[in-house]
């Protein structure tokens, strides 16, 4: 049985990459909801409809677990998804906890970046309220990075001016950690790093999510020896176009 990996678009490929590295013998279905991306600018209830349609489809393929490799989808629907399906549903959230633990005694602030919708949700607000006793967490939307990624535009000429503008209101010397709270943002990690002081760390929730996937599969005796295959789907339609498949596979290679 395969593992489903779901995202609004190509961002979840960053999580798929880490899953394949950790569990190379598993078979995967990657579902990108390319017809409806981005989620972060849309109303919550509209996004929920897209999520349920996507997860229904992935479950129909006979998967043994699903990784919701999308912070926005996790923030708006993860509890309802877990109540709806009997298979493990692994979500992800911005890596606020490790960031707070790291910065606790460093007298530094934390900048959590995410999509507009994620930043509005109670799930993130409650997480920060629970962990941020020192009130050192600031929030920033980098929504436009989703659009750049979906256009496969990773050029510095396009992206760096946008990042500089978005970061211009922050004294970056006050920060110890930047949290990438959207899987699309990981594609731009190196560019973000260029704009930060050398001692600022950038972290995301990808490896924590994949570690959680492995732990759950081990506990349920669901690990298996597959072929390491990956089937790509765009909004429920299997990707057969060789150029599109090449783009997806090239993204996986670029993350090595």
From TrEMBL:
Biochemical pathway: Cell wall biogenesis; peptidoglycan biosynthesis
Q: Which GO terms describe its biological process?
A: cell wall organization; peptidoglycan biosynthetic process; regulation of cell shape
> Which Pfam families does the entry mention?
Asp_Glu_race
Entry keyword Cell wall biogenesis/degradation: yes
Quote the InterPro entries the UniProt record gives: Asp/Glu/hydantoin_racemase, Asp/Glu_race, Asp/Glu_racemase_AS_1, Glu_race
Top-level taxon of origin? Bacteria
Q: What is its EC number?
A: 5.1.1.3
The keyword Cell wall biogenesis/degradation is assigned to this record: yes
Query: What keywords appear on the UniProt entry?
Result: Cell shape, Cell wall biogenesis/degradation, Isomerase, Peptidoglycan synthesis
Q: Where is the active site?
A: 70, 182
Catalyzed reactions per annotation: L-glutamate = D-glutamate
**One function term, GO molecular function aspect:** glutamate racemase activity
PROSITE patterns tied to this protein: ASP_GLU_RACEMASE_1 (PS00923)
Where substrate is bound, by residue? 7-8, 39-40, 71-72, 183-184
PANTHER family with a match to the protein in the record? GLUTAMATE RACEMASE
Stated family: Belongs to the aspartate/glutamate racemases family.
Q: What does this gene product do? A: Provides the (R)-glutamate required for cell wall biosynthesis.
NCBIfam families in UniProt: glut_race
The protein here is known as: Glutamate racemase
Organism of origin is Sedimentibacter saalensis
Gene name, per UniProt, is murI
């Amino acid at each position: 049985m395969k593992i489903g990996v779901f995202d609004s678009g190509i961002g979840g490929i960053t999580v798929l990459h880490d899953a394949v590295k950790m569990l190379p013998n598993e078979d995967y279905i990657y579902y990108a909801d390319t017809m409806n991306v981005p989620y972060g600018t849309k109303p919550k209830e509209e996004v929920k409809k897209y999520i349920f349609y996507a997860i229904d489809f992935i479950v129909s393929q006979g998967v043994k677990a699903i990784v919701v490799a999308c912070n926005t989808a996790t923030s708006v629907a993860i509890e309802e998804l877990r109540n709806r399906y009997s298979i493990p549903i692994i979500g992800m959230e911005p890596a606020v906890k490790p960031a707070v633990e790291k910065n606790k005694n460093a007298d530094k602030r934390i900048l959590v970046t995410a999509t507009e919708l994620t930043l509005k949700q109670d799930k993130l607000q409650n997480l920060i309220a629970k962990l941020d006793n020192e009130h050192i967490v600031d929030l920033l939307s980098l929504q436009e990075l989703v659009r750049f990624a979906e256009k496969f535009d990773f050029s510095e000429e396009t992206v760096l001016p946008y990042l500089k503008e978005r970061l211009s209101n922050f004294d970056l010397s006050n920060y110890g950690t930047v949290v990438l709270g959207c899987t699309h943002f990981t594609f731009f990690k190196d560019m973000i790093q260029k704009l930060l002081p050398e001692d600022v760390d950038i972290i995301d929730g990808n490896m924590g999510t994949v570690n959680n996937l492995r732990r759950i599969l081990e506990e349920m005796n669901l690990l298996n020896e597959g072929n390491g295959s990956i089937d790509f789907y765009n909004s429920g339609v299997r990707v057969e176009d060789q150029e599109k498949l090449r783009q997806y596979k090239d993204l996986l290679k670029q993350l090595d």
